[in-house]
Design a protein that fits this description.
alpha+beta, FAD/NAD(P)-binding domain, nine-stranded mixed β-sheet, eight-stranded mixed β-sheet, 11 helices, 20 strands, 29% strand, oxidoreductase, flavoprotein, ubiquinone
């Protein structure tokens, strides 16, 4: 691969979605020379348009990462909806678990935000980052002192470190030969904005059924973002329903918690899977976000884990620089891997277990589910522990989380 005249960067980030774009901003603000490679130029966010189908529940910890980078103020001002409570219950029982912000002294448990808004805000803040777009990674070679990236227009750039942040089908991960483990869940998640009879009261609602959970996330205009996780057979049934029949089916599946579902705007469905990279780094290689881990979305933690990856990776690279090492030094990349792999595996294991327990029709598991919810609901310390873990705050975490 010819490198004549090729620019040299500290970090080349492949993938300009939420995690990749935020990472590029963070690295640039920390003083690293950064290249960002993205296949498609993201559109400008239009606050007058209807809600996008892709939304995330941003927890306080990852929100702090965005705030420390100067991104959150724009996101919150443009369009974001805070939620102050979360109600969880089992369709097969009577116990309910309600988690609220007052349990840990926070003004909210999180915010519902459109992914494209975060992406647009980050792209408008890239500063001195060199952006290669539209561009795709065509080849990657790792040498002792650099990573050499050939793009699809045959141009070549070099960097001390290349970060794969381009999603579950990461080309960087493939070129690096990093294997993954995982499986398909045999479920699809139907998403879209719904208009319920009752106001959501800034609460996130999730009802567990034997075919998958039904969740309503509050939107700032009073509607809710639906996330209906359904086994393939049910997903096929739902896809075939017309508007009125779908709304009636959703009202039934949600237990009428917000009254009748009066309207369902554009809906779409995507398959669910679990994927985990066997390692997050190699010599001059690192993975972040969905390139490293994909989990069942019932807990809404996918993007949050990716933003926590950003905070930890930037912290590790800063520490390496202070020690006189370049950004591709494996010692400090492994520090990032140790910190994030354990946390990500814990969350992935928890969501996978929840999916399997709540997807079972065994009577004894139904009783166990009911008892677990009742016990958690009755013990304030348990509720506080659950909330603390969910919000992603840590006093001893990396700089971007403080």
């Amino acid at each position: 691969m010819s490198r004549a005249g090729a620019p040299r960067y500290d970090v080349a980030v492949v993938g300009g979605g939420m995690v990749g774009a935020v990472l590029a901003v963070a690295l640039e603000q920390t003083g690293f020379a950064v290249a960002l490679i993205e296949a498609k130029q993201p559109g400008r966010f239009d606050a007058q348009a209807d809600y996008d189908l892709r939304l995330s529940a941003i927890a306080p910890g990852p929100r702090r990462v965005l705030a420390n980078l100067g991104l959150w103020e724009t996101v919150e001002r443009t369009r974001a909806c805070a939620f102050t409570g979360m109600k969880v219950w089992d369709a097969g029982g009577h116990a309910e678990l309600f988690l609220e912000h007052t349990a840990i002294g926070l003004p909210e448990l999180g915010h519902i935000v459109e992914n494209e808004l975060v992406v647009d805000t980050a792209w408008q803040t890239l500063g001195s980052v060199d952006v290669f777009c539209p561009a795709m990674l065509a080849d990657l070679e790792i040498e002792p002192d650099r990573a050499c990236l050939r793009l699809d227009d045959d141009s070549v750039i070099t960097a001390a470190l290349v970060v794969g942040a381009e999603g579950a089908n990461s080309p960087v991960r493939g070129f690096a030969g990093i294997e993954t483990t995982g499986w398909a869940y045999g479920q699809r998640c139907t998403v879209g904005a719904v208009t319920p009879e009752k106001h959501h009261r800034h609460i996130a609602w999730q009802r567990f059924t034997e075919t998958g959970p039904v969740a309503f996330l509050p939107l700032s205009d009073g509607r809710c973002s639906l996330a209906w996780h359904a086994d393939e057979a049910l997903a096929d049934e739902l896809k075939a329903l017309d508007h009125d029949a779908f709304c009636a089916r959703l009202t039934e599946a949600s237990g009428g918690v917000l009254g009748k579902i009066e309207k369902m705007d554009t809906r779409a469905a995507f398959p669910l899977k679990l994927l985990h990279a066997k390692r997050y780094c190699d010599h001059r290689i690192a993975l972040a976000g969905d390139a490293a881990h994909v989990l069942h979305p019932m807990a809404g933690q996918g993007v949050n884990l990716g933003l926590l990856d950003v905070a930890e990776l930037v912290g590790a690279l800063e520490a390496g620089r202070e020690a006189g090492r370049d950004a591709g030094d494996l010692t400090y990349l492994k520090r990032y891997q140790r910190a994030r792999m354990a946390e990500n595996l814990l969350m992935m294991g928890a969501t996978d277990a929840l999916k399997r327990v709540y997807g079972s029709r065994l009577p004894w598991l139904r009783q166990l589910r009911e008892q677990a919810i009742a016990s958690a609901a009755g013990l304030a310390p348990v509720r506080q522990l659950m909330i603390h873990h969910a919000v992603g705050l840590a006093a001893d975490g990396p700089r971007l989380l403080r």
